[in-house]
Amino acid sequence: MTNLREYLDKTDCKNDLKELIELIAMQAVPIREAFIANQSYADTENASGEQQAALDVWSDEHITRILMESNLVCEIASEEKTDIVRNSEAKSNYAVVMDPLDGSSLIQVNLCVGTIIGIYDNGNALSRGRDLRAAMYMLYGPMTVLTLTVGDGVYIFALKDGEYTLMQGPVTMPEGQLYGSGGLKKDWTKEHEEYISEIENKGGKLRYSGSFVADFHQILKYGGVYCYPATKDNKDGKLRLVFEANPIGFIAKQAGGEISDGKQNLLEVLPEKPSHKTPIYVGSRNIIKNIENIFKKI
Ligand code: AHG
Ligand code: MN
Ligand code: MN
Questions:
Q1: Where are the domains of the chain?
Q2: pTM (2 decimals)?
Q3: DSSP of 225-250, one letter per residue?
Q4: Ligand nearest to the CA of 244
Q5: Model confidence band, residue 48 (pLDDT cutoffs 50, 70, 90)
Q6: 4-168 maps to CATH 3.40.630.30
Q7: Contact between residue 137 and residue 249 where contact means Cβ atoms under 8 Å apart
Q8: Which of 32, 66, 146, 268 is the least crowded, having the fewest Cβ atoms under 10 Å away?
Q9: Does ligand 1 come within 6 angstroms of the Cβ of 211?
Q10: 237 lines ligand 1 (CB under 6 A)
Q11: How far apart are CA 219 and CA 181, in angstroms?
Q12: Ligand 2 centroid – CA 208 distance (Å)
């Protein structure tokens, strides 16, 4: 069985990038252990004006401390921070973007949540998603699973006895029937309503848990689409380009899928600010092309 380091040694990653990926991946252990003592909500908000879960804050502070102490990272942009954190002592040009804990509403009901990470080697956390050097997520489910790409396909590892073992890869996202959509149905736009109704008429099966990273992991395996659309009262939707769309979209693209805001490839969009919000359609290539056709038609 191949472990994470053996896989990384077969890639073109520089040693400091391998070290950084392993360091981040191993934080799944303390984060999982922190669940039981961090079940509540903090009395603070993040940059998107959302109330923070205690585990949001704990995970953000933990990963930030580990990265700063490593001196492997020159800047960190986090969903839980308003400003980018910079490290003048850094001995590398890696910039990390992160959603430390995605799916926070599920912490108190013990459903699957995760940590989403993007790594740039150009020192700029506000780069386009297409410029990512690596993207990964740790998924805290019945198993702890790491999904990783360093730009040469998508590989899935499982954590056992403190070591990640390769389970699957390179992963190819099939065309599939699963779909999930955020936003209240009463607030959906006519384009989004038409899109969902077409999917349902073709036998679409609803899969929407409240955790983007968990719902995406199903789409990666079985095919389909995850949507968090623009709504009548919120033209930018809810999710964040930098911390959620770009790393997950980069992984989707590496597996043969696509990510769009309904009109364009989101990996081409230059972030305006860390908390830049965007509508998201991510999943199988043809099903994503279909939403773009609907937006063109209407
Ligand atoms: P986060 O916990 O990082 O704020 O992300 C939550 C996101 C996403 O993970 C999930 O799919 C979506 O918000 C759920 O939103 P709704 O509760 O509005 O459906
Ligand atoms: Mn999130
Ligand atoms: Mn989050």
A1: 4-168, 178-297
A2: 0.98
A3: EEEE--BTTBTT-SSBIIIIIHHHHH
A4: 2
A5: confident
A6: no
A7: no
A8: 268
A9: yes
A10: no
A11: 13
A12: 14
- What are the beta bridge partners of residue 258? 283
Do the Cβ atoms of 174 and 223 come closer than 8 Å? Answer: yes
Would you identify the CATH topology of the domain 178-297? D-Maltodextrin-Binding Protein; domain 2 (3.40.190)
Task: At 22, list the tokens.
Answer: 């392993």
Q: State the amino acid at position 81 in one-letter form.
A: K
Which ligand lies nearest the alpha carbon of 242? 2
Contacts of 142 (CB under 8 A, 6+ apart): none
Confidence band, pLDDT 50/70/90 cuts, at residue 87 = very high
Structural tokens at position 195: 């899109």
Report the C-alpha gap between 294 and 262 in whole angstroms.
Answer: 8
Structure token pair of residue 106: 């599920």
Question: Is ligand 1 within 6 A of the CB of residue 229?
Answer: no
Whole-angstrom CA distances from 100 to 59, 131, 137, 168, 295 are 6, 21, 10, 24, 33
- The CA-based angle 171-173-175, given to 5 degrees, is 155
